[in-house]
Amino acid sequence: MQLYRDDGIVLRTQKLGEADRIITILGRTSGRIRAVAKGVRRTKSRFGARLEPFTHVDLMLHAGRSLDVITQAEVIRSYGETLTGDYPRYTAGVAMLETAERFTPVEKEPSLRELLLLIGGLRALNEGEHASGLVLDAFMLRSLAVAGYAPALEECARCGAPSGDGTGSGRRLPAFAVAAGGMVCATCRPPGAASPAGPTVALMLALLRGDWEGADRSERRHRVECSGLVAAYLQWHLEHSIRSLRHVERV
């Protein structure tokens, strides 16, 4: 069997047989990997604790027919211990792991930009400088952008008419239509489109651009509205719900 090495973030684990686990990892060079960690559930396992979700690991693997086999694991950085002690940050982190997996549906297809976004998002949650909900929404918006689905926030998603003041405040663009691809003008507005407040759209733009100074100044009501729009837009494009979002605390 071919031996190879990669590093990445453990996304999730599942039991296999009496003592093994299947570990899903988003790797730097290999993309999403599913590999068996043999004997990892035994108390005397060599690297059981190193293969938990939220852990950045350096791995040695044997390529298999259906599942690869992990032969060595070394921790680069573990984010789990800090996150599990803080429920809002933990639930945001779980949602990020699930989102990263959904954005990498094909196994072993390189997804370096998604991995780097995930590492940056987990680091931000771990440091706690920004509200967990803002970090999660920024991660989701940027993941959408990497996949080519960034929402139109400064011009009409249908006709291209620009925002009146160029700041994303929503002037002249009164509605957000998920299926249309973002903000739409009054002429292009479809039935059922949302009508977000101007500061909510400005917050989405700040998160997409990485303007944390602007994002941190936002009011709670605009953060809540932003989170709802981002979640709806993300799940529409993924054509799949992010189940862990229901547990996220929006503070």
Please tell me about this protein's structure.
This protein has 251 residues and is of the alpha+beta class. It has two domains: 76 residues, OB fold (Dihydrolipoamide Acetyltransferase, E2P) (Beta Barrel), CATH 2.40.50; 162 residues, de novo design (two linked rop proteins) (Up-down Bundle). It contains seven helices and seven strands, in the order βββββααααββααα. A five-stranded mixed β-barrel has the order 1-2-3-5-4. Helix 2 packs parallel to helix 4 and helix 4 crosses helix 5. The longest helix has 19 residues.
Keywords:
251 residues, alpha+beta, OB fold (Dihydrolipoamide Acetyltransferase, E2P), de novo design (two linked rop proteins), 2 domains, five-stranded mixed β-barrel, two-stranded antiparallel sheet, 7 helices, 35% helix, 22% strand
Quick structural summary:
Helices cover 35% and strands 22% of the residues. It has 251 residues and is an alpha+beta fold.
Topology:
Elements (H helix, E strand, L loop, with lengths): L2 E14 L3 E8 L3 E7 L17 E8 L5 E11 L1 H5 L2 H16 L9 H16 L4 H15 L28 E3 L4 E3 L13 H12 L2 H5 L3 H19 L13
Parallel strand pairs: 3-5
Antiparallel strand pairs: 1-2, 1-4, 2-3, 4-5, 6-7
